[in-house]
Amino acid sequence: PSKIVFKRVSGWDWVISLKSFDDEYKEEVNGVLWSISILCAFASIFLAGILWVFIRRALKPLQQISYGLSQLGQGNLAFAFATNKDENSRNEVDLLQNDTIRMRDNLIQLINKVLMSSQELLASTQAISNANLDLKDSANNSKDTSIQVASAITQISASIEEVAQSATEVS
User: Rounded mean pLDDT of 139-165?
Assistant: First the structure.
């Protein structure tokens, strides 16, 4: 197979033709195609490597945040990130890290409030228990006093009966 190209030359009344065979340009085109294919393969490997490095660098803060959340989940409230991010950052990863830090701080405050409340409750319970013991002691003292008064009344009653009998015998 071959290709023929015709071109009319204006003003001269000529027709120029060019005939080429496929074998003449296929070899050149195939060489260029192979060169371009190899160049594209190396370029894609190079770009994939660069992309891999950038993705690893971009995801490294997410790994730190994941580790931090894991530590918080295990109860380690003393965990701190290696670097603090700018509060005014518009980077979502920085905002996520700042929110994680804020969550940890709020958890610490909540636990401290619960601790203080439980200590106040314990103090109130001890005060109630002490008041209950005082009330019990007071009730026991009242009981003892009541027994003594009853005994005294019984003795007075017995004395009055003796006086009444003595008075009856005398009269």
Answer: 93
